[in-house]
Amino acid sequence: MADERAINPQAPAQTVPLQPYASVSDQIAMIPLHYPLRRRWLIGLGISALFTGLLVVAIGYLFYAGVGIWGINSPVFWGLAIANYVWWIGLGNAGTLISALLLLLSQQWRNSLNRFAEAMTLFAVFCAALFPIIHLGRPWFFYWLLPYPNVMALWPQFRSPLVWDVFANVIYLLVSIIFFYIGLIPDLATVRDKARGRVGQVFFGVLSLGWRGSAAHWQRWRRTYRFCAALAVPLVVSVHSGVAMLFSVGQLAGWQTTIFPPYFVMGAMFSGFGVVAMIAVVLRSTFRLDSLVTIRHLDLLGKVLLASGLMTSYGYIMDAFTAWYSGDPFERATLFDRFGGAYAWSYWAAVILNFVVIQGLWFGAVRRDPMWLFFIGASVMIGMWFERYMLVVTTLYHDFLPSSWGWYVATFWDWALLAGTIGLFFFLFLLFVRFLPMISIFEVKEVLREERVEARHAPSR
Amino acid sequence: MASLPPANDSPSVDPTAKVAPDLATLRHRLASGTGRRFWRSLEDLAESDDFRRFVEAEFPAALELSETSRRNFLRLMAAPMMLGGLAACGDMPDEKALPYINQPEILVPGKALYFATATLFEGYAQPVLAETHVGRPTKLEGNPDHPMAGAGTTDAFAQAAVLELYDPDRSRAITFLGRIATWDAFQGVTVGLRDRLRENKGGDLRILIDTVTSPTLRRQLDDLRAAFPQARLHHFEPVGAALRHQGTLRAFGRPLDVHYRLENAAVIVSLEDDIFGPGPSQVRHAAQWSQRRRDHQQDGDLTRLHVAESTPTLTGALAGTTLNAASQRMPVLLANLAGSLGVGEGNTAEAALTQGEQAWVRTAAGELAAHRGIGLLALGAHLPADAQALAHRVNHALGNAGVTVVYSEPVGLAATDEASALLALAEAMAAGEVETLVVLGANPVYTAPADLDFANRMDRVSLRIHAGLYYDETASHCHWHIPLTHPLESWSDARAVDGTASMLQPTVKPLFGGKSVHEVVATLLGQLNATAYDLLRETWDACLGGDEKAWRQVLNDGFVADSVAQTEAPAPQGAAAEVSLAIGVPASGEASGLEAIFRPDPCVWDGRFSNLAWLQELPKPLTKLTWDNVLAISARLAEGLDLGAGDEAELTVKGRSVRGPVWILPGQAERTITVFLGYGRSRAGRVGDGAGFNGYAVRTSAEPWAVPGAALRRTGKRLRLATTQNHATMDGGDFVRTMSVTEARAAHPDEPLAPTFYPQWEYPKYAWAMSIDLDLCIGCNACVVACQAENNIPVVGKEQVEAGREMHWIRVDRYYEGGLDRPDRTLFQPLPCMHCEQAPCEVGCPVNATVHGPEGLNQMVYNRCVGTRTCASYCPYKVRRFNFFEYAATDSPLLQAQRNPNVTVRARGVMEKCTYCVQRISAARIEAQKEGRPIRDGEVVTACQSACPTQAIVFGNQADPDSGVSRRQQSPRQYTLLRELNTRPRTTYQARILDKASDGEA
């Protein structure tokens, strides 16, 4: 804790208010076992299921008719599908980063946030993973992008950033699942122990892999967990760097720039933190978890959001500056197109939502107000979508030869996929909230214990 | 059909008393069905009892159905036909088809056979070599042995002729009153008809025909006239060059064809003569001009072109100086020009000209005067005959006649007398003087000027017979319709524009039965059993003296040697002063209403090619529009009327009006509206129906080319137009480079290539490369269609083009420089795949579907492609095309027969692009390996290259320093598109050389 205070001297002394351990277990573990808001949950699930249904229809029709149902054309060969992909995978960055990086840095405040942030990551990456497949002209051959043994001895083309992307994504998804699951095991055991019904006992019993909480278990668990965290952190960077390479390996003006990988990673973290902040605010108020997700958490989230937002803004500025400074007529033309071309709205929407709005976070009152934080998180999330759209479309619609310049207008089916994946995300997240402990019980207890110890040794407070 | 009056004098026919099968249903089914289904239905029909009863009741004399009507497509493809064609042993009876026991030596599956034949355009032969695969014609190439200049190349129309052959909407059956009838029944009708005609010497027989150049058909028509001396022949060509004959009639006293010799012309002054625009002479002119240009690119003595025009043309695009003036100003300009050259002084009145006009006339006159004997004054074929005559006088006075322009007896059957014009026919029909009308090939119900009220007048004729490729507008107004055979499936002959007699031999048995026009005329003559082949032999045996060897030589060559028209340069008769050009058209800018001018569409011409999807989807050279015609207006006029491109407007001309979308055309004369003809058809077929608007609806026979006093009104509606190029300028880039004559001569050492991380490729033997000389490109589009025909490129339709998904592997970019009102320059740039050495696409593809070949080709492996479209996104030239839908599957089975068997048909979700015609490289390699030698320079000719009439495209091995392409690359004008990207393309360009005039050196 001393470390933490050294980093955050202004931070409130306690991350989690002092409370009995049992109350933590009860507050969290009882949600899956005795879900408090059945009606609202069912309504939410129904609505998200409808959108998930739309996704199924959109994909079904896509497979039947071909990618021509989208608004893509020549020269805008990539459209909303790629923008959505980058956006989703960006959202999916924050959970693992919060969880793994802060774990390695022993930032204990993460313990109240990491579980649902990880879940958010998983579902976002899952939504993202749909796009590279359905985006293909011939999706039934998606496995050709994988290095599998075949009689033709054909390999993927390793110079292609798409191949790197496939590797990075698949590994990231797998590691994220493993990390999430390992982190869940002690809590699953807690829920198992609290379960009254036979179904719950078996379900959680199987999932908890016979966890008994012995010291040996804890020792092995901790080693594994930290190991996975160490694996996951570089993957967070690689996955979005890979996505950035998808653009910057091409020679197109507005894409080919070396700042893209860090710029994308920062942007991804930024949007991910925005969503984590939103979820934290919603869960906190919905399930009255104020004592577990405290104002201090919100404050910290706000700071991280501001910091990553400013780093992203640096990316914006440097991207524009290098384009201008390069003197390359095509780079400049694309830059000015972003400022004032047909799709300038997407650029300015991104700038306003991602840069202007977050300036409010300089103020503690804004950071600590759940409503404000929610809206800023939403602004970032939407702003980052505009940024992805801007990056894909403004570069492609006006490239080198004016003769091939074109337009891009997304069709109903493009939007249906975005709406459908959002529906799918909510669908999965609602299932998570309903059936799994959404906040890490044992880790919160750990924080609590440390605080108690500290409280005992600090009589001045 | 119900509106047709009964044909009262057809013998033994009573349309009301018949046992008809449900033909309406059948027609409907056929109209919506695919080719194969159609055929089956016809067979079902022919075999049904209903039909037999119908035939018996209708035509007792024709109980036996001709066997030919039941041939199916596969049997038609049977190889004996081709052998028949080659050995010239005539039409083999179509009997049992058996597989070969011994493979004929000549017929090797997988090996193409070529036949020297010709297609027809406006009646003129376009000599071609037809490539056939196992009996299917798939591609047409020019016939390089043909003596006409440029005959080794083709235009876009000739390339599309093979599609016309397979067009599933071509008429498939003889019909009587819209119901299927038989040839025998038709012949039965002609028996009675002939009896009557013999009595009145054919006094009430009229034959309407388009341009005839066929010696055999001319002979037959002469026979017809001899048999029925009172019968009258009318000629009608909706575009044509009839006024040109009237001009020579006035100048020289007889109708003559005008042949330019552009290879001799150092200066060309054109008043609205679209020398290089689409038309029967395009290829010839382009080749002549290119020949001189190539000879003088080094010394800089390039042909200088001065053009005055009301609407931009390809000729204007090539010109150094252009003047935009109303079409009706042309005679005044000409009079001034002639006056300042000392011809017909009486006409000079410079004061009547605007300043710009004066300057242009002075420059043009000065150039012509300075280049006596090597200049050419060319006048649009649509300008008044008096003006034409004056131009001939000028050319004669300057000594140009005989050098840059020569004359010959008309190659086609000329229609100079008014009695044989369409107007006379319309008046005779109105007066009830016509009992029998035979329309051969023409489609006057659609193309006749609106004031003739042709359809209604025609309906008063008692017996109307139509023979044509399609059941078109005219067919639907006729009692009888005979489907004609396509030039590629029939025996015939025709003359090319230079007069060379070309032979048409079938490359496939008639797909839909069909009759040759010779057989139709022979039937009228009572020769019921004459075949086209016999008739043809009859003509040529007389000429060749029955020499079988000579005949075989003719078939082998595709033309009759030394049959070119005799040229001459006669002296004009009478004095120039007789010519009156006092046409009081005020100078532009004054408010006197607008001028409407009529021009054929550059892609579907007068409408005859409406149903050819290749041509419909071919971007028009200047507007880059597809699938539509427009009312082209100037930017000023658009501003004044608050019109934008795509706004619908109503054009009113002399009380008639038509609605269509406007298009702002840079370089259009301010108050001139160009109406493009050829659209708005109702019976073109599934492709052409309903596209565009019908410009003929406001055209009159008195003023078919330019009408003053037109009015344009905005309707407020917006129409959707599909263009393939949204952006008209280079935006500061130098994608199409231009150079002055001096610059072009100086060597421009290439900057060293930028470094690259990737290893260099090694090419021990071949390194294929293409070089495109932009100084020679005239933007004619022949390469685009040739590529489409060769490479099985699908047509995607208007909506998909609008969405930006056209599939052409080579596109011709068009850029303007200068102002919107009068662009300084119009530049063209054909753009195939660049086949980059350091190809961005190859890096992007995750599955190795686009890879660098061992000879430097950037290859697409279609069956490996998963469709990530990364390659296309990365491509700086955007030459890649994606199958967003299953485009190729929309072709009917019949159209699939046209496909090149050596080129994969691409499926949905697969990327494709120009391959440098890799199948042709493979074919050449196989030949070379068989003979144990390397591939020779010039042995591989890509489809675009072989079509190009100016030889702007050269392809070959750049590893060989002596190859044509290597030599081209040594040119000081050589440059690489987007060189700064270090993609190191194999396709390179040569800069366009600017005219001295625009260079400031003049």
Structure description:
Chain A has helices at residues 2-7, 21-33, 38-65, 80-104, 114-134, 161-194, 198-207, 215-248, 260-286, 295-326, 329-340, 344-356, 364-368, 370-397, 412-435, 441-457. Chain A has 461 residues and is an all-alpha fold. In chain A, helix 3 runs antiparallel to helix 15, helix 9 (260-286) packs antiparallel against helix 10 and helix 12 packs antiparallel against helix 14. Chain A is globular, with a radius of gyration of 23 Å. Chain A starts with a helix and ends with a helix. Residues 1-23, 29-47, 57-90, 582-591 and 998-1002 of chain B have low confidence and may be disordered. The termini of chain B are far apart. Chain B contains 32 helices and 39 strands. Helices cover 28% and strands 19% of the residues of chain B. The chains are: A mainly alpha (461), B alpha/beta (1002). Chains A and B meet through helix 6 of A and strand 30, helix 26, helix 27 and strand 34 of B.
Mean pLDDT of chain B equals 84
| Order of the strands making up the biggest sheet of chain B | 5-4-16-15-14-6-7
What is the terminal-to-terminal distance of chain A?
Answer: 15 Å
- Which band does the percent of strand residues of chain B land in? 15-25%
Compute the average pLDDT of chain A. Answer: 86
Report the structural category of chain A.
Answer: mainly alpha
Multimerization status: heterodimer
Low-pLDDT residue intervals, each spanning 5 or more residues of chain B? 1-23, 29-47, 57-90, 582-591, 998-1002
| Total number of beta strands of chain A | 0
